[in-house]
Amino acid sequence: MKTKKKTSSSTADRATAYAKAVVAGKIIAGPHVRNACQRHLDDLKAGAARGLRFDKDLAARALRFFETKLKLSEGQFEGEPFQSQPAQDFIIGSIFGWQRDNPDHGWVRRFRRAYIEQGKGNGKSPLAGGIGLYGLTADNEAGAEIYAAGATKDQAGILFRDAVKMKDQSPDLAKRIKSSGGPGREFNLSYLAKGSFFRPISREAKKTGSGPRPHMALCDEVHEHPDRGVMEMLERGFKFRRQPLLLMITNSGSDRNSVCWEEHEHAVRVASGNRDAKHGDAKYIGEPLDDSTFAYVCALDEKDDPLEDPTCWIKANPLLGVTITEDYLAGVVAQAKALPGKLNNILRLHFCRWTDAETAWMTRETLEPCLGVFDPSEHHGKKIAQGIDLSGSRDITAKANIVETGTMPVEVLVNGQAKTIEKPTYDCWIEAWTPGDTLQAHAVEWKLDVILQWVADGYLQAPKGKSIRFDHVAQSLADDDRDYEIGLIAYDQYAFRRFEEEVVKLGLDLPFIMHPQGGTKKGEPSEEMKQVAKSENRKPEGLWMPGSLRLLEEAILEGRIRFLTNPVLISHMMSAVVDEDKWDNRWLAKERSSNKIDVAVAICMAIGAAAAMGSTSSAEYQMLII
């Protein structure tokens, strides 16, 4: 979709025009973009005292390069001139218009780092490719080295290929820039007049011992970078340049222990001038925290609901109506409503909402109302169900405890008719163990200070050793057997025989039942379950993860379960990812989750056991869970 062409004369200050329109509310933008615009306007007034100035002619020059030299290369935009939109005016104009007074080199580019986070489909890659081509040919840097950087070689090549296609579409650039490699296999762009080049680079380059001297480093999909490796390598080479630039472009991520989250939070603080600002709380103060970083972080406001209110979509999609349409986003929203498993991925990719797993099982907003504080001892003497997820070394063993606390009326569909039935309510609390001698190894998955704090606060037990001490876990069951009536303990076969030996040593006689973790196998029904099935003239069935997951989801969504607040529980629930088959059976997938999810698995197993041992709820509910 085309929009009315704007002037790009040297007298037009399009970056400031955008900032004023956003601050005045004439252009709808999210909280961090509003802060970035206010920062721009404040710096125009007070920046000179810090050795800053804004050169609108330099900003216009960069915009003129984009609009007169670059052409787009794919889909409906094939061969179309790059027409900068207002949000791009602000980004391009800010990066190339702001300067700082350098004692050795005079006026140089102010921003050495730029972090841009937007919804998918808002033209981040063409923008970054265009910035790279500008740095290669028009930034007055001799011997410029421009790198398209990615976590992997393939990822680095995506942005680079966008730049190659734009170069090929532009008759002027095609004459001035030489490609190396055949069509579709290009690996280098050379601008011989200045001895400059543009090429992809990935984290594997760390192993070569080479020392790049980047003029510009363009880092694509920062949320997929496992560490700072490639970015730090490139930034180390900045010392050889007068005005280098690290440009980071990304969708919102799913790992809050990642380099992307650190850069996101830093950008939020920089835009707001508030050193205490956080993702969801970024009140503008205007303190100059980092004059070398430009931040353009798209996000919704806290009360925005993109599933119900299309007017907020533009906050995460500043090119809405240009590169991405309202009809497309409406279709995406319809998917999120119809397929809950897709919800968080859609919120992350299209509405700039950070989740805790790439295809997260649930949102924080869903879990938080179910968190509470209570003393498990208040349930002493009651019948409980348990789920145990055993592990070996460098992992977590989790035990979930569930007790039924009563019932509540819930409206459900029975044979297509709405009906109110009584469903059980639950309290749930967990215990978790990890080998004390392998805590350091967990630093790769968690921040080490986090896991050490969990241990110090008693949320995670870490007895000495390189593998899980099953005798400690067995002793916890002995304590439970003394304090509660254990109705059923669900377990997976992994390592159970070794654990069972410890249980036997303590002389315990407990009601165990197998509960496989995957989505294809059911466990063996207990004798009691067989008798109930026989009395109801049906085939007996054991426990399995899709059934238990459904029970847990319903209990959470209907507000029928209360979890004793525990950061290990929260982390594992937020990190969980689901797999599904063509029959819509769904289960928790450990191998695809961003962090450990053993506690979530144990809770699913426990609620399955609770349902299997019966409840005081209505007969209609018992029929529904079969």
Q: Specify the helix fraction band.
A: 25-40%
**Strands of the biggest beta sheet: in what spatial order?**
6-7-8-5-9-10-4-11
In angstroms, what is the radius of gyration?
A: 29 Å
Largest sheet: 8 strands, mixed
- Report the β-strand fraction as a percent range: 15-25%
Q: How many beta-strand elements? A: 20
Low-confidence stretches: 1-10
Secondary-structure class: alpha/beta
Please tell me what the overall shape is: elongated
Number of helices: 21
Q: What is the average per-residue confidence, as pLDDT, rounded to a whole number? A: 87
How far apart, in Å, are the first and last alpha carbons?
52 Å
List keywords for this structure.
alpha/beta, elongated
